[in-house]
Each structure stands twice: as C-alpha cells, then as structure tokens.
Amino acid sequence: MSIIIENVTKYYGSYQALRNIDLEIKSGELVALLGPSGSGKTSLLRIIAGLEQAENGKILFNEENYTHKHVKDRNVGFVFQHYALFRNMTIFDNIAYGLKVRPRKTRPSKEVIEEKVTELLQLVKLEGYKDRYPSQLSGGQRQRVALARALAVEPNVLLLDEPFGALDAKVRKELRRWLRRLHDEFNVTSVFVTHDQEEAMDVADRVVIMNEGKIEQIGTPEEVYDHPENPFVYDFLGSVNLFKGNVHKGKLVTGNVEMNAPGSEDGAGTGYVRAHNFIIEREPAEKDSIASIVDHIHTIGPIVRIEVIRQDTNEPLEIELTKEQYLNLEISKEERVFVRPKELKVFVDFMAGI
Amino acid sequence: MMEHDNSVVAKANHPVIITRNATKEPKSIQWILISIVLLFLTLFLVVPLIAIFVKAFEKGAEAYFAAIAHPDAVAAIKLTLIVVLITLPLNAIFGVVAAWTITKYDFKGKNFLITLIDLPFSVSPVIAGLIFVLLFGLHGTLGPLLQSLDIKVIFSIPGIVIASIFITFPFIARELIPLMQSQGTSEEEASLTLGAGGFKTFWYVTLPNIKWGLLYGIILCNARIIGEFGAVSVVSGHIRGMTNTMPLHIEILYNEYQFSAAFAVASLMSIFAIITLIIKSFIEWKTDFKSTKAR
Fold it and tell me: Distance between CA A209 and CA A227 in Å, rounded?
C-alpha cells in the first residue's frame, strides 16, 4: 500500500516539530527516516500511524484520505523502540491480541488464530517461548515478538520507531538484516525511524534525511551518500572534514592551498571531504597538497584513523586509510606529510561569517 | 613454583571468613533496636487491641452478643455497610478516571488537578463536614432549594455518603497515579494500533496492569470509609437507629457509660480492620511476587 504525505505540519505548543512535509512512499518499499534527535522523524511516523494528529496537511493510504481516520482503523503495524509488549500476557497472547480483539464478525476462529500465531512464532524463531511472559525474554527476542505481533494483523504498512535502538550492537546488526529479509518476503510497505546512518544505509531502499522538522534529501543510500545535496546531509552521513575558504574562478582557496572546485560559484564557500577521500604522501604533488603533522594514529579493525594538523591553519583533519595503505606508507606520529583530497564538494556559504 | 601453588590451594581451602558487613550493626545494637520497636508496638497497638476485647467481654459473652444484636447497633452496622456500598464503587470509578486522565493525557492545569485531589488529605475532617452543612444545611447556600424539592441531605444518609466520598476520594487515585505513570502509555498505543478500541484497550491492557494497585486502593479506601468519624459526625446529626454509623454509635454508647456495649461494637470494627490488614498483606505479597517475577 502506498503512502502519500502532503504538506504535513505539526506543532508541540509553540515548537514546530514538522514543517510542510511532502513525501511519497511507494507500495512495497522499505524507507528509512533518518535524522538527529529532534528532527521530527518520530513525529512523522506517529502521524502516519494515527497516534498523533497533524495540524495541517493530508495523509493518503493508496490515494484514500486517512488524515482523520482513527489509529485503530488504519490497520498499521507499529513497532516501538521499547517493545511495548503486553506485560500481563504470554508471548502467544501478545501475538494473538490483534486478531482476538476484532469484532465478532471479522474475528478468525480459535483454531485459525492458533495456526497463525504458531506460524509467526516459527518466523521469528521463538517456537518454544509461547507460554513465557515478555519479562522472561531478552531485548532482541522481545523485539521479534513485537514484530510478530504487528505482522499478525496483516497490516497495510509496517511502521518501526527506532526498532533496534535499545539493543546491543551485535544483536542490532543481526536483527536489521533479518528485517530486510522479512520485508523482501512479505513485501509490506515499511517505514522505519533511525538516527543510525549505517542502519539506514544497510536496510532501506530509500533514505529520507530529516533535520529540524524538514526533509533535507530523499534518495537511495548511494545517492544520498555520494551526492549529498547540502552541507547538513554531507555532515550527517559519515565523518567529514571542512575547508573554509573562498571560491575564485573554479578554485577553492583555503589557508595557503588551492583546490580544484569546478563549477562552483565565486564567493565564500566550504569544501567538504570525507575522511576516506584523502591521499597521504611524503612529498607535495600539486597545489592542493596540504602540509600537515601527524598527531594521532588509531587502528580500528581494518581501518586506520589518522589525525593530522594542518600546518597553515593549525586545524585538525581526520583521515581514514585502509590498513594496507597505512602499512605501505610507513608513517608515524609527529611526522610531516602532505595530504591531498581525492574528492571535494564545495557548498557556497549561506551563513558566511558565522 | 610448586610450593607457591600449594599455598594458594591451601588458602582457598581455608578462606578467612569476614562476616562483618558494612551496613550491619553489631548484634547488641540490633537487639536494642528490635526491643524498642516491639515495646512500642506492644504498648500502643497490642495492649489497646487486647483491652478492647477484654472490655467487650467484661460482662460475659451474652452481654457482648446482646450489645451487637441491639437494634440501634444493627442499624449502625447496616448504615455503615450502605455507605460503603455507595461510596466505594463511586470512588473506585472516580479514582481510575482521575488517574487515567492525569497519566495518559497532557493538558494545562494538570498539576493543579493533582493538588486538588490531595485536598481531602490536608483538610480536617470536621471542617469537611462543616463545608457540607454550610452548603446543604437548612440555612446553607443550597438549603432552601433542597427544601423546596423536599430533599434531605444533612442529618440523613445522602449527607453521610457525600462526606464519606469527600474524605476518601484521594485514596484510589493516589494509589494509581504513580503506578500508571511508571507504566507509561506505549502498551495502550500498541493496543490501539492493533485495532482495539478504547474500551477493549482499557479492559485487556490497562486494567490487568493496574489491578493489584486498584485493589490495594480499594482496601485502604474501604477501611477509611468504615472508620471515618469527624466529617460524618458533623453531617449525621446522631439520630439513633437512623443516621448513626458504627463509630458514632460507639461514641454514644460510651458517653452513656455503656462501656461493654461500646467496646463490643468497637471489637467488631477491630475485626473488620484485622481482616482488611490480612487482605492488604496478601495483596502486597501478591504484587511483590508479580514484580519479582516481572524482573
């Protein structure tokens, strides 16, 4: 089922949580709402679910207006960050709940419910746990129960609010892969909220990046990572180094280096370079080689993170090399090196001087 | 090397046991504290309780049962039960509604509402009774209106019920608010997204989560309704066999030097209190059991 969000605005008191949001989610798509806390992503999800009402705008499910439809009539599956399992019910009863509370006319028979729940328990690999209570399960198991409970009602759309936020790193990674496979199997339109860019990139078909109640960019994980439309997106997705300077005739002048910035307008601008888009050399190669001193070297698994200090401006730069590159280079702390950006994106400053 | 290893094994086999716990006092202080508590409880709780029963049976079992079976006493017991039967359900409903409103919705003046619910705790019961006399009495604000409609509130059962409701309405709400606050609203939200309406959500999700807290509040509320003296005394008018509740009846008997009879009725109230305590402990044990299981 497709979801169309038209011009949605939401206030909490005088605080504007959402500013004129427009978004279209295609049927069967898995979309991530990604943003820092306070960006409005959870508010948007809750408005889609009907748990909150927008001040303005429309929500359409399959082009039917759902804006004023009550949450119980929207048939959405909602998965909460802290699971929200019914603590007084067994796992079986939790999953069966959505079917049991249906009005008599549409309620499946006891046998059908039991069959369905057993099937879902198998799907989430918790067959042996049906008589336990939520408190007797681990976080990852609880979230799987929550998913099974949401899927039991065969929802039009599946909405997940930071579903893996409360889990530890390893379980989180396993569960998000599992969610992806589950989505491919059920093909239910899904929207999930996260502040973890890696999670969004890993799982989603499309990523919606939000900030301060606005949508900053929408695109596939590759699109938003490789072609960020604005400084916020660049900064939010992965570690990035800033080069403040001036653009003149297609060159960004920063400190006493010049970098190629073809197509950029003249004026104050900032160059953005991702940490892994640098070359470190012992000798200066071009005009954009930045003389620097190695300050720190950390090895994190296969990646080596090197902090250098620019000699011209004394600003630190963060560079990531592969272990192999690092070993070939044979550099050590306090050494003088030349750093050259492989890829640079220049944004003209809107707020020059700040 | 071998010798060193042996010594370690030897040490492990004969560990030095240090029993002194940082939070534990020496035995002597423990005993002194326990004795003080026991002495205090005996002096102020056990002795009076025994005295009630001794006094009640002073003139023999026959006099005891005669006092309880006296028409005025029976009327007082009946009236007390009627007041309980009306007040308790009303306050249970009010308590749940108030706790629900306060914990599940956000609105302006919420803190003021919480303070208002606490009001009966801070107002003296006698003043509370007087408020209703001034409001519903013959010369009160609503007095002439009530008289023209031929409704009697003060010096009759409605007045006693109203005063009892006022005195005991915080008990259940106060018990439920912190409980429901700690539970949050996400289970209810989950229920709604799964297609359950408001009533089903309350019945299947909220009520089971608060049932022991609710029962605990009801027990406390019940005990207070039975025992309330001050407010009821002001509005009842002490009409024998008509508007006397058990505490008022006891006072009258006592003032008339019918000590055995007074204590006989008092012993009956004490039995109510003890039963209440037993139920309360059972509920506490049960909720404790539940919460440890939940962890």
Answer: 13
